[in-house]
């Protein structure tokens, strides 16, 4: 039990990495608020966890709606008293679209979801962390956040941005007891493919070069284990780090 009596918020907890992280956190003693904009998915996952007597609640919210994010934090503090851990996990993919083919709508959608949403939610939670002198943020980036050929322009920019946010916050708030780290997963089995329609042929052809060299997809539960380490006191010395979970895909 690494997270005994902690209160966590996990975004995008209706599927994939977020679902696995919420489950692992709850099994390690944390109360978990599972946030997702897909009501059916997040309520199904929460019911499954509740059936195991795990302390969980679902909250339907859209990362693109700032009021939703305020309500999420209010719900969590009203119901469970505080927030100790925030996992910024929810995101959408961008159809591997090369910059010349990126519409304003696609850019705004991906940046608003994957970067601005995490920024606004973290800012909301930070007030609580500062008031009590501690807290942990785990940001889920991607190998697209450390390399140029793993996604389209908007996804790559957003995932690099999340790492910048991680390092800046770690530097500015580490001395106040707040740790902020990121995970950069490689290919993971999940429903992320559902988040976009037809692939951009130009961008997908470029990205396929490295996909062909990929070591195979990982399980969401493997990324959840990294999140657990980063959320727990076992990583007390780790702040501003990016832990890559890709079976060595970005090494060669
Ligand atoms: N699957 C991969 O290969 C892979 C690789 C690298 C990084 N990642 C990252 O892992 C994280 C989790 O993705 P996943 O692979 O589990 O995908 P997923 O699609 O299975 O899960 C993402 C969840 O986020 C939710 N979501 C999307 N937009 C939202 C919004 N605006 N508001 C609230 N919820 C929203 C979805 O409903 C979904 O349940 C993401 O940050 C993704 O970029 C995934």
| CATH architecture call | 3-Layer(aba) Sandwich
Query: How many domain regions?
Result: 1
In DSSP terms (H or I, runs of 4 or more residues), the helix count works out at 7
Question: What percentage of residues falls in helices of 4 or more residues?
Answer: 40-55%
On the 0-100 scale, what is the average pLDDT? Answer: 98
CATH H-level name... which superfamily? Answer: NAD(P)-binding Rossmann-like Domain
Rg, alpha carbons: 17 Å
- Tell me the total number of β-strands: 7
Which cofactors or ions or other ligands sit in this model?
nicotinamide-adenine-dinucleotide
What are the low-pLDDT stretches, counting only 5+ consecutive residues below 50? none
Stated plainly, the CATH topology is called Rossmann fold
CATH top level class name: Alpha Beta
User: Main sheet, how many strands, which sense, barrel?
Assistant: 7 strands, parallel
Note the quaternary state here: single chain
- The helix/strand class is alpha/beta
Give the H and E element order.
EHEHEHEHEHEHHE
Q: Using the alpha-carbon principal axes, give the shape.
A: globular
Q: DSSP strand (E) fraction?
A: 15-25%
Amino-to-carboxy terminus distance: 36 Å
Strand order of the largest sheet: 3-2-1-4-5-6-7
């Amino acid at each position: 039990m690494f997270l005994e009596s902690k209160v966590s918020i996990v975004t995008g907890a209706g599927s994939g990495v977020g679902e696995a992280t919420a489950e692992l956190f709850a099994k390690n003693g944390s109360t978990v608020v599972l946030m997702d904009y897909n009501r059916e998915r997040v309520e199904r996952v929460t019911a499954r966890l509740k059936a195991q007597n795990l302390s969980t609640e679902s909250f339907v919210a859209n990362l693109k709606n700032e009021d939703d994010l305020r309500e999420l934090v209010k719900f969590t503090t009203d119901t469970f008293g505080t927030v100790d851990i925030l996992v910024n996990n929810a995101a959408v993919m961008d159809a591997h679209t090369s910059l010349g083919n990126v519409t304003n709508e696609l850019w705004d959608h991906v940046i608003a979801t994957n970067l601005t949403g995490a920024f606004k939610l973290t800012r909301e939670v930070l007030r609580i962390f500062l008031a009590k002198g501690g807290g942990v943020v785990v940001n889920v980036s991607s190998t697209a956040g450390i390399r140029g050929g793993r996604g389209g322009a908007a996804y790559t920019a957003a995932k690099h941005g999340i790492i910048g946010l991680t390092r800046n916050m770690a530097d500015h708030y580490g001395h106040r007891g707040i740790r902020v780290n990121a995970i950069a997963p490689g290919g993971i089995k999940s429903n992320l493919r559902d988040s976009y329609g037809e692939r951009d042929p130009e961008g997908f052809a470029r990205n396929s070069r490295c996909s062909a060299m990929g070591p195979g997809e990982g399980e969401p539960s493997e990324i959840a284990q990294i999140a657990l380490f980063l959320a727990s006191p076992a990583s007390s010395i780790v702040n501003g780090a990016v832990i890559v979970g890709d079976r060595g895909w970005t090494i060669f």
